[in-house]
Amino acid sequence: MKLKNLNLSNFRNHENIYFDFDDNINIFLGNNGAGKTNILESIYVLAITKSFRTSNDKNLINFEKNFCKIESTILKNNINYFFDVLISSKGKRVSINENIYKKISDYLSNLNVILFSQDDIELIKGSPSYRRKYINIEISQLNNKYLYVLNQYNLLLKNRNEYLKKVSIDNYDKFYIDILNNQLMEKALLIYKFRFDFFEKMNFFIKEIYNNFFSYNISLKYINNLDIDFYDEKKISDFYLNKMKSNIKNDIFSGYTQFGPHKDDFEILFNNKKLKEVGSQGQQKLFLFCFKICEIKIFKLVTNDYPILLLDDLFSDLDIEKRNEIFKLINNEVQVFISSTDLTSINNEIIKSSKIFNIK
Questions:
Q1: From the centroid of its chain, how far is CA 213?
Q2: Contact call for residues 329 and 27 (beta carbons, < 8 A)
Q3: Residue 160 and residue 231 in one domain
Q4: Residues facing residue 171 across a β-bridge
Q5: Can you tell me the distance from the alpha carbon of 251 to that of 305, in angstroms, rounded to the nearest whole number?
Q6: What residues make up the domain containing 190?
Q7: Same domain, yes or no, for 150 and 245?
Q8: Neighbour tally for 187: CB within 10 Å
Q9: How far apart are CA 16 and CA 259, in angstroms?
Q10: Which of helix, strand or coil describes residue 110?
Q11: Span 35-81, pLDDT tens digits
Q12: DSSP state of 232
């Protein structure tokens, strides 16, 4: 999977700019505020349809303009596809080869990107909701069916929570609650299946990759409150329904469904201790990069194609030796986009084989 070119209209500070890209490494070089990250952001929006920097799409539109547009030719399986994302006051329109997608879930997973930015430290130090959101995006890229099921689950969850707020412990429709519980369980089973599979693959690759740098034992622990360490549909469905039934009084009292995949989390264990508590800043950043390399391997395994890698000014905390080792782990078939304020943090061999864009 390769971005052959990129055309931006009124995106952030770029009113009209066009790029032809190298199939391997592309570097955006410029001072802070020049708009380097904006370019990476546009590629991310092209793939995910959402920004990694703002939840308000209107912030992506250039000041005093009423729309922004991202266009790109993508090479997949030796075939060129034309991707187009238009954002305006009327909403968002996404299309491939001029075929407009009414559902974002149908569009998602056609273009895969993996982003490494400064905010990724929140995967270690941030809230469970941040980690859930991240995992939801990554799995949705692998299989857009996941996003479709997740949206259905969230709609059912919203209906259940709204009903819980209207009733009392002594006066609620048990039959209606049972129907909602069973419908939620059906969607939850699929969500759990996708998540178990994702973390199983991550743990398979993470030990191998991290051992290139350290001999420490590193692993990801999927926290789901199921009391089950592997996917078993019968056990999970029984446990889920029993838990929902036993929690009903607390749910009514709080007006909120307290159990289910919407409460899931994961943590990183470093020699069986939490990385956020015992790992240095360098070890944490190194883990995050290994995490991204694992994702590249998973995408290749599942989709039979490499995703596009976006690196947003990240090398300042790693010594030259670690930087070199990191790039050795990136398959040369992966197209990489790097933003940087200078070239001193980037290996000379990488610079020689890169296409450099000076952003002013």
A1: 25
A2: no
A3: yes
A4: 168
A5: 44
A6: 121-302
A7: yes
A8: 21
A9: 48
A10: coil
A11: 999 999 999 999 999 999 999 999 999 998 999 999 999 999 899 99
A12: -
